[in-house]
Design brief:
four-stranded antiparallel β-sheet, 23% helix, alpha+beta, globular
Length: 278
Amino acid sequence: MLIGMTERGPDSAGLAIFSKSLPVGQHKISLYSGLTTDGADFNWTGMRHHADETLGISSTIQHSDNHAILTFVGNPELVKRWIHEHYPAVHILSTGSSIDLFKDVGSPAAVASRYRLDLLQGSHLVGHTRMATESAVTPDRAHPFTAGEDFCLVHNGSLSNPYGIRRMLESHGIHFDTDNDTEAACRFLEWRLREGDTLEEAIQKSFTELDGFFTFLMGTANQLALIRDPFACKPAVVAETGDYVAIASEFRSLAHLPDIQNAHIFEPAPEEMYVWRI
């Protein structure tokens, strides 16, 4: 599906995949070393030992190329602060007990091959191919964006008030990593979730607070949600069968899917919520 959208987004690509949650107390952080001087040769094992010794945790790490997943028992906010302090060039991609995230610059085919995305398994995923319009082409500005734990968002469109949203959230102590408008939307929705809103309530508030044109696809540990702005400026198409739900910007990305000829295929309405529970 990602490769099918190459012409729409040749600059970078990414994928967040959700699988069975880790046991209570365990967390995992997806990490990216492509911005360090060592790149793909970064010493992930040394970093893990350093974390265990200084934080008093017991962790494991799986790594491939410039990507790694650090799994541990402990406070994820403490571990993230430690990473920022001791390895500032290592980019934190995601945090949670269910989500793993892979993203990088390059075509969808190149990114998929680099991280062997074809071997990943999970219950649901959120993917994106990017044609940059609002900020630079860099790995950290690729989609999906994440905030908090087990939450991600991809975006087709452009927000007209991201800096107003950013200033409002920064007044609540929320830190931003990039100047990308999608990060403003992602952090706004996750902030509302953290304040106690349901996903539906958070989305409803986004229709009032976020200005611009957008199609958002969001993932949590047990939900997928799709919305379009009130004018439905950006395309989306959904295919539903008894076995899967698939969402894309164009039908050509869905055309090869199993049993697609018998799927319920529709275009989402503007300013409507579509939420699937896994």
